[in-house]
Amino acid sequence: MKTIINTANAPAPIGPYSQAVLSGNTLYTSGQIAFDAQTGELILTDIQTETKQVMENLKAVLEAAGMTFDHVVKTSIFISNMDDFARINEVYGRYFNPETAPARETVQVARLPKDVNVEISMIAVK
């Protein structure tokens, strides 16, 4: 059985998908980009600000499922320019305890939705 997770505190999906799906004790989030849920605007000021918005969106989805970043076991980071890796990693790292950080992959891609620079998805387990 699956439970669809939606919250007004994260951007509404821009296609036929849910913000997250809870299956048993495992939460699968859709990729989040830097939409501000309140204004509907993309936050593309700089890569650090963009990454922070992505992480805040993921935080809202996790909270809607009754979870925190401590529950995250795996993340996938898609970036448009590997030269931004260190700056993205700096912001991303603020959300996790380094000693219990999740597994992760970071992949450079040719293009992301809405021409953003970073998209992140997560798997979390309660």
From TrEMBL:
Organism domain of life: Bacteria
Q: Which InterPro entries match?
A: RidA, RutC-like_sf, YjgF/YER057c/UK114
Spell out the family assignment given in the record's similarity comment: Belongs to the RutC family.
Q: Which NCBIfam families match?
A: Rid family detoxifying hydrolase (TIGR00004)
Query: What protein name does the entry list?
Result: RidA family protein
